[in-house]
Specification:
It is a single chain. The chain has 290 residues and is an alpha/beta fold. 42% of the residues lie in helices and 16% in strands. It contains ten helices and seven strands. Strands 1-7-6-2-5-3-4 form a seven-stranded mixed β-sheet, sandwiched between helices. The termini are far apart.
Length: 290
């Protein structure tokens, strides 16, 4: 590489370096469910401030417009090679499901929701809602219109709002649509390992007797360097075999069975793709039931 070209490579972002440092620290402490990004605290989402099912005509128009604009934005990122998707494998595992389903995915970037949008489009399904954190809805860091209208289901610290949320989840799954949930409950930037999973996604699947479709996205460095000074990642999407509740198990047993099966499926992909055994730097045993 010529000296002039070397000088054009951006320095590694101090913010990203600090994020990586926090990831290393939290992994050692076993704090897998804590976000490493310092997002602003959101306001409490009150029940009269959200129409989860977007039942009004005006709400439906806003959703349609937001989704159209979002697709154009994602396609622009792909065209400019700022978002790279190497391949989507196993999409038939999702296509073959005749009912609603809970879709799970590892969470490693703000862009993984864009990747999942392309996976959803490849599935040919009618609708996919995305569960998001409360702060991303009430105090979104950017692109407010899209964060609040692209088929999102924001969580809430308000009990009455959460009752509406749970009713919406049940309605959506029962009518045959799909809900994307990040069961790790934290986003760790470019973290390649699967993190321990919370039970929420599997509770919804068991309650509504629908399958979970585990999706695990793997990454590889490219020769292109992003504005943050780090290699742009090329992503491979692995759509895995659906996990169905078992009739011989009770509710609690089914939730644990599906959670473990999902985690094990992710681990298998991780070890096959990266060619190494999954190991954490955490001292002592990891409590998967926290």
């Amino acid at each position: 590489m010529k000296k002039e070209e070397m000088q054009q490579v951006p320095e590694k972002s101090q913010e990203r370096l600090q994020v990586l440092q926090r990831i290393e620290e939290y992994e050692k402490l076993g704090k897998f469910d804590i976000d490493v990004e310092y997002d602003p605290q959101g306001k409490e989402l009150l029940p009269d401030k959200i129409d989860y099912l977007r039942e009004s005509l005006f709400a439906k128009i806003k959703v349609a417009f937001a989704n159209m604009c979002a697709r154009k934005y994602i396609n622009k990122l792909i065209k400019e090679k700022k978002l790279l998707i190497k391949s989507i494998g196993g999409i038939e595992n999702w296509k073959q499901i005749p009912t609603g389903a809970v879709i799970t995915c590892n969470h490693f970037s703000a862009n993984d929701s864009f990747i999942m949008q392309k996976v959803f489009e490849a599935s040919g399904k009618r609708k996919m809602y995305k569960v998001i954190r409360e702060g991303n809805y009430t105090n979104p860091p950017c692109l407010k219109f899209f964060m609040q209208n692209c088929d999102v289901l924001p969580l809430s610290s308000n009990i009455q709002t959460m009752k509406k949320f749970i009713h919406a989840v049940d309605t959506i799954l029962q009518r045959g649509d799909n809900i994307l949930i990040y069961p790790e409950e934290s986003m760790w930037w470019n973290y390649r390992k699967p993190k321990p999973l919370k039970t929420g996604a599997f509770k919804f699947a068991v309650k509504n007797n629908v399958p979970v479709v585990p999706i695990f996205i793997t990454m590889e460095d490219t020769d292109s360097i992003g504005d943050d000074g780090f290699p742009i990642q090329n992503h491979t999407v692995h759509v895995l075999t659906p996990i169905y509740p078992k009739t011989e198990l009770n509710k609690k047993e089914n939730i644990e069975y599906m959670r473990k099966a999902n985690y094990d499926a992710w681990v298998k992909v991780y070890e096959q793709v990266y060619g190494k055994k999954l190991e954490y730097t955490t001292e002592g045993e990891i409590d998967f039931n926290k």
